[in-house]
């Protein structure tokens, strides 16, 4: 006799599926589980420079937009046009300056710390690049003057910042509190400790006086007749 094999019954879930869904499920089961790692569009070094630069540019552009709107209102000109123009220029200048300065610092950095001279060089280069961008926006004739002027501004500004930050001083800075114009007297730790000791001695002396007064009052309450004799010695005669 021939054996008759009947097809296996599908499960209730597979039977309830649409044929298209069954095909997708079969493809998902047979597809390899591992996927290729996703590649970043830009290297992380560029992202670390671009993202802060765009943030700085956005903040400066927003400030420039408000300034341009105010200038347009004062000059009786279209404030929207002035706002867009000045906001775009400030965004381009600030973002290009910050990005180029970071690139220059990374290129000039020899160790972990950056020296003041390297900061001046990086700021001058960044100022020249920002001046080139600003000059290109205003017209080709303004590129060379923009590069020269912004390079000088960037280097000079960084030198002033270095002089303020890296100023060597053998003595600690007195500051405003130690000047004669300050309404507050500056005290060292030793002077403050001395004042506290003097106040503590005064408090101890006042406590001793109060204790003596309390003791005299208690003695007077315990011997009232003796106190009367001391006050009026002729009354007993």
Automatic annotation (TrEMBL):
Residues 1-40, 218-237 are annotated as: Disordered. Residues 1-11 have a biased composition (Basic and acidic residues). PANTHER family: CHROMOSOME 7, WHOLE GENOME SHOTGUN SEQUENCE, NADH-UBIQUINONE OXIDOREDUCTASE 213 KDA SUBUNIT. This is Uncharacterized protein. It comes from Echria macrotheca.
């Amino acid at each position: 006799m021939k054996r008759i094999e009947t097809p296996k019954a599908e499960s209730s879930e597979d039977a309830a599926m649409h044929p298209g869904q069954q095909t997708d499920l079969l493809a998902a089961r047979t597809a390899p589980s591992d996927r290729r790692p996703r590649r970043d569009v830009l290297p992380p070094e560029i992202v670390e420079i671009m993202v802060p630069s765009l943030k700085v540019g956005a903040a400066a552009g927003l400030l420039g937009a408000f300034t341009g709107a105010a200038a347009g209102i004062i000059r009786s000109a279209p404030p929207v046009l002035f706002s867009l123009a000045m906001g775009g220029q400030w965004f381009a200048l600030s973002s290009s300056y910050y990005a180029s300065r970071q690139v220059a610092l990374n290129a000039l950095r020899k160790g972990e710390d950056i020296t003041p001279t390297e900061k001046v060089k990086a700021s001058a280069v960044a100022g020249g690049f920002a001046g080139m961008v600003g000059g290109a926006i205003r017209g080709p004739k303004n590129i060379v003057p923009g590069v020269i002027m912004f390079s000088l501004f960037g280097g000079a500004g960084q030198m002033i910042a270095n002089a303020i930050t890296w100023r060597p001083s053998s003595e600690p800075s007195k500051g405003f509190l130690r000047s004669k114009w300050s309404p507050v007297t500056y005290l060292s730790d030793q002077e403050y400790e001395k004042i506290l000791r003097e106040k503590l001695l005064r408090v101890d002396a006042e406590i001793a006086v109060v204790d003596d007064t309390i003791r005299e009052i208690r003695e007077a309450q315990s011997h009232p007749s003796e106190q009367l004799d001391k006050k009026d010695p002729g009354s007993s005669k």
